[in-house]
Amino acid sequence: MQQMFDTVLVANRGEIAVRVIRTLRALGVRSVAVYSDADADARHVREADTAVRIGPAPASESYLSVPALLEAARRTGARAVHPGYGFLAENAEFARACAAAGLVFIGPSAEAIALMGDKIRAKDTVRAAGVPVVPGDADPRVAEAAREMGPPVLLKPSAGGGGKGMRLVRDLAVLDEEIAAARREARASFGDDTLLVERWIDRPRHIEIQVLADAHGNVVHLGERECSLQRRHQKVVEEAPSVLLDGATRAAMGAAAVEAARSCGYVGAGTVEFIVPGGDPSQYYFMEMNTRLQVEHPVTELVTGLDLVEWQLRVAAGEPLSFGQDDVRLDGWAIEARICAEDPSRGFLPSGGTVLALDEPAGDGVRTDSGLVEGSEVSSLYDPMLSKVIVHAADRPAALRKLRAALAGLTVLGVPTNAGFLRRLLAHPDVVSGAMDTGLVERDAESLVPVGVPEEVYAAAAAVRAAELAPEPRGGWTDPFDVPSGWRLGGTPKPLAFPLRAAGAEPVTVAAPAEARVSPGAVRVTVDGVTHSFRRAGAWLGRDGDSWHVADHDPVAAALSGARHGGADTLAAPMPGTVTVVKVAVGDEVEAGQSLLVVEAMKMEHVISAPHAGTVTELDVVPGATVAMDQVLAVVAPREEEAG
């Protein structure tokens, strides 16, 4: 048996790099972080024993650069590489390159990665092992098979997962367009645009089984995780165990997952994902196997008491599992919420900015896995997930309550996040009852996003402005004429009022409240007899997981800007990102709703369409251009009949 590694390079960034470093430190193993220019001061760099710069900000020139990663390992004397998830974690060529360089890849073999990474081969392999699979077909018969099966069908990239490139098609009239879009995203994300198509099961549950296998032939499963709360095929909340499964179904699915792992000679920690009809959980179908650690692995850790990163390291070092299937016990309930840089009030578009204030929940049964520190720069270059809040309690109702309370205590100011949205989602009646499916979030998302800005938010912002105007006392005395009290000669005092504008809302003029207390980092105001407390930083206010950017509004400057850019004729970037496609040129005639440009951020595409029929009079970007949120991209002047 090999000895535990003395130095491990973590080939990732953000919260997963911090998570892996935590276990390495607990085991007394030296950690090596890698970073791009954009991450020079990131948390994972600060917490590692050693850190190596590997290239410029774009992932293709840093975190995806195999030569740079191998050179970093050589320079620091690392004996093994932990890939985390994302980037190169499921890249068979990277695993082979590590082996060729004399490094241990902390994960399965390159052959297992390649087999299970090809969804077509994976389905054939597990089907041969007796594992049920979803009906479907693959290239070159994707379009033909989709039409034969009839809608609804799901298009999926063969080479990758994580929801990227997936398209649910309910109308065959748009099939060709959706196939083209899926291929484009698959090629951009995985370098391979091969697709497969599967029968879509309406109102399905997404349940996955954690497996752990060593190099000595031992394979166990560690129970299931329910991952049905998803948006755009991306998981947002996960829990263990699942309220849907009874003991017999859990055992059957676990056994199927073990057989799937055995069928490819799997070694390490992996996850076998199943689609399950909510009305009949005994009819489960294999979807795919993720040959890496999962984002949601903490919920399994909390109900089993096992550190999965530690077992990845031990298995990679040649140790056998010290326990068998009968030794695995599930204790209590764990739920995880993914905190992402996205703005629910703007259709969940990716967000960015500088973290001005940060409060992360902790305490008994509460865990936060995070890559953030105050001052962190969140850009559109990488995945939008910032952190995860995970709780453990004796039962599911207690875990739901604990997670809602933890999210209420989370503050991220400077970057819009989905924390408040998730807190409301966890109170949804169907979530509380356990009657979930993978379409629930999409169906009810709108009802979970508050309309407008609460009155007390504006009051708090006005109180902060008033406090900022107050003079500093000099020698214990303040000149009453310096106090912004609204006092007027020979008249009734008029309350101070401030023109304000919250992001995405119309401007308002708000009087400073009579009852307010402003202190560094906080503000408390009383409105209609109710007192409200907020965390504050700059123009940002936060409460119960929600945040608002409330800035001063200059109506003259706003009017000039609107006139200059053509008002409703202007097409602006809805998010910070990169222009990937430009379909028009200045002078082109376009129709209302016609696709003009595509902006990509955090691996998500957003199509910019013409607001009306007209002529493109300005085009300020080219493919590859980096744009800021609300930056003008183009102007479409309406046709005379449209304008009239």
UniProtKB/TrEMBL annotation:
<feature type="domain" description="Lipoyl-binding">
    <location>
        <begin position="562"/>
        <end position="637"/>
    </location>
</feature>
<dbReference type="InterPro" id="IPR011054">
    <property type="entry name" value="Rudment_hybrid_motif"/>
</dbReference>
<dbReference type="InterPro" id="IPR048429">
    <property type="entry name" value="MCC_alpha_BT"/>
</dbReference>
<dbReference type="InterPro" id="IPR011053">
    <property type="entry name" value="Single_hybrid_motif"/>
</dbReference>
<dbReference type="InterPro" id="IPR001882">
    <property type="entry name" value="Biotin_BS"/>
</dbReference>
<comment type="subunit">
    <text>The biotin-dependent acyl-CoA carboxylase complex is composed of AccA1, which contains the biotin carboxylase (BC) and biotin carboxyl carrier protein (BCCP) domains, and AccD1, which contains the carboxyl transferase (CT) domain. The AccA1/AccD1 complex forms a dodecamer.</text>
</comment>
<feature type="domain" description="Biotin carboxylation">
    <location>
        <begin position="4"/>
        <end position="446"/>
    </location>
</feature>
<dbReference type="Pfam" id="PF00364">
    <property type="entry name" value="Biotin_lipoyl"/>
</dbReference>
<dbReference type="InterPro" id="IPR050856">
    <property type="entry name" value="Biotin_carboxylase_complex"/>
</dbReference>
<dbReference type="Pfam" id="PF02785">
    <property type="entry name" value="Biotin_carb_C"/>
</dbReference>
<protein>
    <recommendedName>
        <fullName>Biotin-dependent 3-methylcrotonyl-coenzyme A carboxylase alpha1 subunit</fullName>
        <ecNumber>6.3.4.14</ecNumber>
    </recommendedName>
</protein>
<dbReference type="GO" id="GO:0046872">
    <property type="term" value="F:metal ion binding"/>
</dbReference>
<dbReference type="GO" id="GO:0005524">
    <property type="term" value="F:ATP binding"/>
</dbReference>
<dbReference type="InterPro" id="IPR011761">
    <property type="entry name" value="ATP-grasp"/>
</dbReference>
<dbReference type="Pfam" id="PF00289">
    <property type="entry name" value="Biotin_carb_N"/>
</dbReference>
<keyword id="KW-0547">Nucleotide-binding</keyword>
<dbReference type="InterPro" id="IPR011764">
    <property type="entry name" value="Biotin_carboxylation_dom"/>
</dbReference>
<dbReference type="Pfam" id="PF21139">
    <property type="entry name" value="BT_MCC_alpha"/>
</dbReference>
<keyword id="KW-0067">ATP-binding</keyword>
<dbReference type="InterPro" id="IPR005482">
    <property type="entry name" value="Biotin_COase_C"/>
</dbReference>
<dbReference type="Pfam" id="PF02786">
    <property type="entry name" value="CPSase_L_D2"/>
</dbReference>
<dbReference type="InterPro" id="IPR005479">
    <property type="entry name" value="CPAse_ATP-bd"/>
</dbReference>
<keyword id="KW-0092">Biotin</keyword>
<feature type="domain" description="ATP-grasp">
    <location>
        <begin position="123"/>
        <end position="317"/>
    </location>
</feature>
<comment type="pathway">
    <text>Amino-acid degradation; L-leucine degradation.</text>
</comment>
<dbReference type="InterPro" id="IPR000089">
    <property type="entry name" value="Biotin_lipoyl"/>
</dbReference>
<dbReference type="InterPro" id="IPR016185">
    <property type="entry name" value="PreATP-grasp_dom_sf"/>
</dbReference>
<dbReference type="GO" id="GO:0004075">
    <property type="term" value="F:biotin carboxylase activity"/>
</dbReference>
<dbReference type="InterPro" id="IPR005481">
    <property type="entry name" value="BC-like_N"/>
</dbReference>
<comment type="function">
    <text>Component of a biotin-dependent acyl-CoA carboxylase complex. This subunit catalyzes the ATP-dependent carboxylation of the biotin carried by the biotin carboxyl carrier (BCC) domain, resulting in the formation of carboxyl biotin. When associated with the beta1 subunit AccD1, is involved in branched amino-acid catabolism with methylcrotonyl coenzyme A as the substrate.</text>
</comment>
<keyword id="KW-0436">Ligase</keyword>
